[in-house]
Design a protein that fits this description.
The chain is of the alpha/beta class. It has 2 domains: 262 residues, TIM Barrel, CATH 3.20.20; 84 residues, Four Helix Bundle (Hemerythrin (Met), subunit A) (Up-down Bundle), CATH 1.20.120. It has 14 helices and 10 strands. The strands form 2 sheets. Strands 3-4-5-6-7-8-9-10 form an 8-stranded parallel β-barrel, surrounded by 6 helices. A two-stranded antiparallel ribbon has the order 1-2. The N terminus is likely disordered. It binds flavin mononucleotide. The site of flavin mononucleotide has 23 residues, from strand 4 and helix 9.
């Protein structure tokens, strides 16, 4: 596995913090800004890349189902690089014993947190009684969490919706939080919209049910002792800062973090954590990936498995389109590796120079 030296200071111990209301949660501090669990997106390569840009924020895995780990013994799904800390494993499941066993496997693999998915609406997940459908069974969720908490020493957290289908979020969500926190969970990420389990695709379920941030703020006021992160539709760090200013303990960002990683992660340490940004420029992030890519390709991996997560690195900047094009057209060709990334970087540098020359020209004509 690629083993690039850990960024200085990237230790889970630096991220400690008392949970709102007490109790030790060594990753609560990092949860001030987290990158959401996203299937096919936040795999280990993506997380390694994200971590180069932010040492402080909390990263989540894709969902891994408890049956895959416990019954399928698919332990390769737990592999990650030590540089990724602090990193949380998200589990899917609804059987307390199986989830406890899966949580134990996750903690033994070195994850800093185990998170239970109570938000994912996909059919496959519904049929296994995981994900958002569990909003209907808060006592079962509490039982699952109690079993996981008993099995591991790392924090057990929950990512949930505000309700599903015809549930009334103002009734359901406080009841859910009360019951699940009663089992010992002190940290939640709340996707501030319902999931409609019938008739909407998972993708539509991330956009169509309306966001209700006020409800999430109200939950923070009502459950002051819990650490609550708001998730859903947060597109910029300015918006994240506004939610924190409204009293939220954390903000979890999904799609914007993936599509504009530099804008979100590259600025997060300075703006959200008051720490020094590890890198000054997205070019440095690409350069810092080269050794990791070389090792992956040398071990028989494909460039595209890593470079697909890097396509948005220059989003909104000169050269963004060229960067995307060179990588997406070339990454799947046989032999593609570091040289292609360097070629794409040269294209970005060229576009930057042209943009700078045009800017100067503009100034001299002004
Ligand atoms: C491609 C993709 C895959 C996702 N997979 C998961 C998942 O495995 N577990 C989960 O809890 N949520 C998953 N989500 C939902 C996100 O974690 C997040 O709640 C959602 O995208 C809303 O946040 P955003 O508006 O900041 O993207 C996924 C979202 C996307 C876009």
């Amino acid at each position: 596995m690629p083993q690039t030296p850990a960024p200085k200071g990237a230790s889970p111990l630096r991220h400690g913090g008392a949970v709102a209301g007490g109790g030790a949660d060594p990753v609560a501090g990092a949860a001030r800004l987290s990158i959401a669990p996203m299937m096919d997106w936040t795999d280990r390569h993506c997380r390694f890349f994200h971590r180069l840009m932010s040492r402080e924020s909390l990263l989540y895995t894709e969902m891994v189902t408890a049956p895959a780990l416990v019954r399928g013994r698919a332990l390769h799904l737990l592999a990650f690089s030590p540089q990724e800390h602090p990193v949380a494993l998200q589990l899917g499941g609804s059987d307390p014993k199986e989830l406890a066993e899966a949580a134990k496997l996750g903690a033994e693999a070195g994850y800093d947190e185990i998170n239970l998915n109570v938000g994912c609406p996909s059919d496959r997940v519904q049929s296994g009684t995981f994900g958002a459908v569990l909003m209907r069974s808060p006592d079962l969720v509490a039982e699952c969490c109690a079993a996981m908490i008993a099995a591991v020493d790392v924090p057990v957290t929950v990512k949930c919706r505000i309700g599903v289908d015809d549930q009334e979020p103002r009734e359901v969500l406080p009841d859910f939080l009360a019951r699940v926190s009663g089992a010992g969970v002190t940290r939640f990420a709340i996707h501030a919209r319902k999931a409609w389990l019938q008739g909407l695709s998972p993708k539509e379920n991330r956009d169509i049910p309306p966001l209700d941030y006020e409800l999430v703020y109200d939950m923070k006021a009502q459950f002051e002792h819990l650490h609550l992160s708001l998730n859903g539709g947060v597109a910029t760090l300015e918006e994240a800062e506004a939610h924190l200013a409204r009293g939220m303990d954390g903000v979890m960002i999904g799609r914007a973090g993936y599509h504009q990683p530099w804008d979100i992660l590259g600025a997060a340490d300075a703006r959200i954590f008051g720490a020094q940004a590890p890198l000054a420029d997205p070019v440095e992030a690409a350069e810092a990936m080269l050794a990791y890519i070389a090792e992956h390709v040398a071990a028989g991996g494909r460039l595209g498995q890593i470079s697909k997560h890097m396509l948005g690195l220059f989003a909104g900047q000169p050269g963004a389109r060229l960067w995307r094009r060179v990588l997406s057209e070339g990454a799947h060709k046989p032999g593609a590796g570091v040289a292609l990334v360097q070629e794409a970087l040269d294209a970005v540098r060229g576009a930057r120079e042209s943009a700078e020359a045009a800017r100067r020209e503009g100034i001299s004509h002004a």
